[in-house]
Give the backbone structure.
Amino acid sequence: MSEEKRNRILAAVTVNVILLIAILASVCIYQLVVMVNLNKMKNDLEDSILYYETMTDKNNSTLDYYKTEEGLLDKAYEYGFVMGK
């Protein structure tokens, strides 16, 4: 193998290795961006779930209160069906 042929092969291998490294780096960066976005979306969904669970608990306790006689009486006073409290 001549010196010129060996130099061309080494140059081709070097270019291919550099291209491979560049492609792998871009894929890694893309994957990191996707993971960050998915993590943010997961946190937002967990916050929404917590908010709606809190609202559900609050509404259930309000419903339980209005199912009692005292709650119904308060609503009757509020809408003027019963005078004075």
Summary: The CA atoms of residues 9 and 79 lie 91 Å apart. Helices lie at 3-67, 69-78.
